[in-house]
Write a structure and sequence with these properties.
This protein starts with 5 loop residues before the first helix and ends with a helix. With 341 residues, it is an all-alpha fold. The chain contains 14 helices and no strands.
């Protein structure tokens, strides 16, 4: 259901108590600012890893790592779990080590590439949004040209990895690269960019089946569709954090599209995802550990909906991050179900 008015929609999300200062036009680039949703633990790890570099190189290296979201590994994990679901289901056991390494590294490369092109596409939008105003391009610490170079370099690294698989996987990789490049621009033209994100994040699923089986069976496409639905759920929770700012900036998202009906619609999407995963389990003939994992996922979904019932921004961000544990629960269920066959 589309929102009836902007005023009605803003009522759902309270403003933060301490707004983050935003860069002013013409202001000098900030060297200390960072995105508001950076992980404190990941940031400390990055600082520790970079401490031996000379100051000039350390600052620029850190900016590049923040550009590619290495200070927020949650996005890579949300891409990793479905990839691992697919690898284990395709192999019906522990997947070949070579493919496990290729796809795990590919997840981090492609996610980093997607973040670089996303910030390039949003370079004029991010300074207007509280959560993203500290991103490297928005804060003036990385130029748009540098972001494009990082994006292209990561695509090349990802393609090199794919060359160690088979022809079908290589052919599918071109569609994956296109989805990753297109997604950041869709939020200007449609309220459903989360669907495109889900396809981009989930394209590793058919690629994993292709790499292991040299074909993509129906269960692979069913898992792909289920992952798109899950991506819409967690990225809508993420978009709820920025809904007020996005409305003012003219961006589009499912959080804006769903309006006052966001929680009921999220509930319907969650039920649809669980149903799709039930069919996955049936087609793959998985045993009781998988169903326990799916039950745990249902419980985590319920907890998320309860936490975001008041549309508090911190709670919405927490719900988004909680999906990491949900993805892990499903993966553990798959691994144990295959092990106990």
């Amino acid at each position: 259901m589309a929102p009836t008015s902007r005023k009605r929609q803003r009522r759902n999300l309270p403003s933060t108590n301490t707004p983050r200062p935003r860069p002013r036009p013409g202001a000098a680039p900030s060297r200390t600012a960072q995105p508001a949703d950076s992980s404190t633990r990941a940031t400390r790890v990055l600082d520790w890893l970079l401490q031996k570099l000379p100051e000039a190189y350390r600052t620029k290296a850190r900016d590049y790592l923040v550009l590619t979201r290495m200070d927020r590994p949650i996005g890579a994990l949300l891409l990793l779990w479905p990839t691992w679901w697919a690898l284990w289901l395709a192999a019906s056991d522990f997947p070949p080590v070579k493919l496990l390494v290729i796809f795990t590294l590919g997840v981090f490369f492609m996610r980093a590439a997607g973040c670089a092109i996303n910030d390039f596409a949003d370079r004029k939008l991010d300074p207007q949004v509280e959560r993203t105003a500290g991103r490297p391009i928005a804060a003036g610490r990385v130029t748009p040209r540098e972001a494009l170079i990082v994006f292209a370099s990561l695509l090349v690294c990802s393609f090199i990895l794919v060359l160690f698989t088979n022809r079908l996987t290589i052919e599918l990789s071109f569609a994956g690269a296109a989805l990753a490049a297109i997604y950041p621009f869709t939020k200007r033209y449609t309220h459903l960019p989360q669907v495109v994100l889900g396809a981009a994040f989930g394209w590793a699923i058919p690629m994993a089946f292709a790499a292991v089986m040299n074909t993509v069976p129906p269960v692979g496409w069913l898992l792909f569709i289920a992952n798109i639905i899950w991506s819409v759920v967690y990225d809508t929770e993420y978009a709820l954090v920025d809904r007020d700012d996005d409305i003012q900036a003219g961006a589009k998202s499912t959080a804006i599209l769903f309006g006052d009906a966001d929680l009921p619609i999220l509930g319907i999407l969650i039920a649809t995802f669980l149903l799709a995963m039930l069919f996955v389990g049936q087609r793959a003939m998985l045993g009781w550990p998988y169903w326990l994992g799916l039950l745990a996922a249902a419980g985590l979904f319920g907890w998320q909906l309860w936490r975001i019932r008041s549309h508090d921004r911190a709670a919405c961000l927490w719900a988004f991050r909680n999906n990491n544990w949900l993805g892990m629960a499903v993966w553990i269920g798959i691994v144990l179900a295959l092990a106990f066959r």
